[in-house]
């Protein structure tokens, strides 16, 4: 969106806020299974002009089924990490046969969802710095949670 030449004169912060507002509107409409008249009324209350409302509703209607399928696959509660495993991967050569000698960590999070049981594991690769940053953020989160429960 920020690279669109038609939007180059708009402040990037305003553009991001507009994008977030539109995404929230679409998700809430999908979550509530809102019909076009309810969406139109809401957008009229937000002072959008008739042409934009019609365009929004047309696009929403075209993508409504896919949105509902996507929202249904997300579930109602966040995933719960039940276990974590990792291994060190050491890349010696790149696909261009240059020697690289880059260590990285392959991390696998075993997750489950209380709505539907187990889910496929979440796997990612990261450098030592990225892993240290993740561990630091997790420690900060644990401390914040500990402080919140002591109040």
Structure explained in plain terms:
The protein has helices at 12-32, 36-45, 50-74, 128-150; strands at 80-93, 99-113, 117-118, 122-126. With 151 residues, it is of the alpha+beta class. It folds into two domains: 12-74; 81-150, no CATH class. Strands 1, 2, 3 and 4 form a four-stranded antiparallel sheet that branches. Helix 1 crosses helix 3 (50-74). The longest helix is centred in the middle third of the chain and has 25 residues, at 50-74. It is extended and about 60 Å long. It starts with 11 loop residues before the first helix and ends with a helix. The mean pLDDT is 84.
Describe the structure using short key phrases:
151 residues; alpha+beta; 2 domains; four-stranded antiparallel sheet; extended
Write the layout of secondary structure elements.
Blueprint: H1 12-32, H2 36-45, H3 50-74, E1 80-93, E2 99-113, E3 117-118, E4 122-126, H4 128-150
Antiparallel strand pairs: 1-2, 2-3, 2-4
Helix pairs in contact: 1-3, 2-3
Overall outline: extended
Tally of alpha and pi helices: 4
What is the overall pLDDT average?
Answer: 84
Q: Biggest sheet: strands, sense, closure?
A: 4 strands, antiparallel
What series of H and E elements makes up the topology? HHHEEEEH
Low-confidence stretches at least 5 residues in length (pLDDT < 50)? Answer: none
Q: Compute the number of structural domains.
A: 2
Q: For the record, give the distance between the C-alpha atoms at the N and C termini, rounded to a whole number.
A: 43 Å
- The percent range for helix content is 40-55%
The Cα radius of gyration reads: 22 Å
- What percentage of amino acids are in beta strands? 15-25%
Q: Would you tell me the structural class of the helices and strands? A: alpha+beta
Number of DSSP strand runs:
4
């Amino acid at each position: 969106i920020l690279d669109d030449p038609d939007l180059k004169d708009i402040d990037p912060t305003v553009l991001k806020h507009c994008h977030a507002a539109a995404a929230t509107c679409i998700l809430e409409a999908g979550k509530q299974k809102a019909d076009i008249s309810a969406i139109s009324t809401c957008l009229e209350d937000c002072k959008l002009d008739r042409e934009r409302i019609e365009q929004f509703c047309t696009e929403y209607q075209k993508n409504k089924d896919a949105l509902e399928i996507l929202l249904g696959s997300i579930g109602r509660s966040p995933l719960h990490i039940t276990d974590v495993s990792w291994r060190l991967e050491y890349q010696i050569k790149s696909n261009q046969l240059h020697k690289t000698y880059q260590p990285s960590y392959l991390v696998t999070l075993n997750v489950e969802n209380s709505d539907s049981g187990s889910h496929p594991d979440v796997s990612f690769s990261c450098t030592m710095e990225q892993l240290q940053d993740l561990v630091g953020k997790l420690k900060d989160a644990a401390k914040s949670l500990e402080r919140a429960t002591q109040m």
